[in-house]
Amino acid sequence: MTTSQAIARARAISRRLVEGTSSSVDDFLAERGAWQE
C-alpha cells in the first residue's frame, strides 16, 4: 500500500465516522425535541 492509498483510506474512514456521528446526533436531537413537545 502506498502512502497516498493509506491517506485516501484514512479519509474515507474518517468521513464515514463523521457522517455516522452527525446522523446519530440529529436523531438524538429529533427524539429529544419530540419528547419536549
Automatic annotation (TrEMBL):
Highest taxon in the source lineage: Bacteria
Protein name: Uncharacterized protein
Lineage, opening ranks: Bacteria, Pseudomonadati, Pseudomonadota, Alphaproteobacteria, Sphingomonadales
